[in-house]
Each structure stands twice: as structure tokens, then as C-alpha cells.
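anyone seen this seq b4? input:
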Amino acid sequence: MSTVTTKDGVEIFYKDWGKGQPIVFSHGWPLSADDWDAQLLFFLGKGYRVIAHDRRGHGRSSQVGDGHDMDHYADDLAAVTGHLELQNAIHVGHSTGGGEVVRYLARHGENRVAKAAIISAVPPLMVRTEANPGGLPKEVFDDFQAQLATNRSEFYRAVAAGPFYNYNRPGAKPSEAIIQNWWRQGMMGGAKAHYDGIVAFSQTDFTADLGKITIPVLVMHSEDDQIVPYADAGPLSAKLLKNGTLKTYKGFPHGMPTTQAETINADLLAFIES
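predicted toks r here
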């Protein structure tokens, strides 16, 4: 397995396929690089070099007990890009991975990066505060942690079979294979990383980070996202970015890179090649 060891001794697993301009993919909570299968194969077929890593505590990376915060996530991503000596890279982040990409760009600079895309992403800030009245109550995320601590397996099954892919919507046709693959990825990771990760994705404020980014960024978000509600995420991020473009979808789920891969891949390719 390909791994890079971070400064604090964490082994980060990554996939690195093909040649050409690199596209680096950052996955969502509580998944792994496997969640990008549809994108990795598509862009590999278009002549790009595709790279995806497992966040610390997730997938095949070290199940460490600490460092489950956005600064460490960004530093781990920097360890991968530095180890591979990437230049002129495109960064794509889904959900929590979108926050990871934003923090990486703000914290480590843009000298290795040409463009970025954030999909169904958590920035600017998910939790409700005085400054962010449209956010979700902290109790929502406290409940996620309680369910994870009580029965992680059952909780993950419910998320995948329900709001993540909008399988709880009237007339939806759930894919058992997609549900099981989400559950499989989640259960590969460590409970502590996932427990702490809920705080990382919900309570990190990316407002200042977004304002520092100057490269072109495509913000892709669905109005029917049940995990990261649209109004307080995509449009606000696009406004805060110096060079942001908002692409809005109707009726797509939070997990649209999997269920609507054909559309998402085509739109990403158009942005990358524009």
C-alpha cells in the first residue's frame, strides 16, 4: 500500500493512478478514498493523474486517537501533495473534504494548485451561532455523536439508507449496494476519528479561509441537500470566494458524486478544462 508518514507519525494511505495534470480528491465523513471510485476512473480515462487519500483515522490510514481537526486534515493533505511533489493540481473536496480543501489552500497557499472544486461542502460554517443564525443547532451534531457512541454500525446504516442519498424521499429507489458500500467505508475507519470529526466538520468556521483564496473555485451544491443545507453553505461560500462560481442542482442528494456521477463528472470536467 502507498502511504506517507506525517510529521506527527501518522500513516496516510493514498491512491495515485495515471499521468498528466493531477486531480486530488478529498472525501467526506466518515468515508475513504473509495468514495471517489466514479470520479477516479472517469478522470483517469480522460488523461488525468488521479490521487485520493484516506483522511487520518479513516479507511486504511492510521487509527490515531488525536489530530481530528481541520488543521491536521489540511496538514495531512499537504504531506501527500508534498510527498508526490505535485504542481498545477486541481483539488476536489466533497462535504468534509470541501472544508479540508479550503483550509489547505488558506493554510498552505496556492503555489501547487491551479483550481479547486468543493461539492456539497461544509463551509462557511454548519453550526448555528449569533453570527451564523441560519446554521443547524448544535444539538443536531451532539445527537450524531450520541448515536455514533451508542451503535455506530446502526447509525451509519441509517445515514446511508436515508438522508445522505435522499433515499428517504417519496418515490426514491434505494440502491442496497450503495448503502452497503457507504456502511463498509464508514466501518473501516476508527470510532474516535469519526466522533471527533463531527465537531471538526460542524464547528469549524471557514469564513476567513474562503476570503484568502484567489484561484478559481467551483462551488457545487444541491438545493435538496439534507446533510449540508444549501442556503447556509454553497451560496455563502461562493460569495466569500474572490473567484468563486456557484453551480446549483435541484433534487440531487448530498451524495451526488455517487448517485449523479455522470452529471457531476461532466460539470467538473467542463470547469477543469475551461
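The mean pLDDT is 98. Residues 138-161 form the longest helix (24 residues). kinda curious what u guys think
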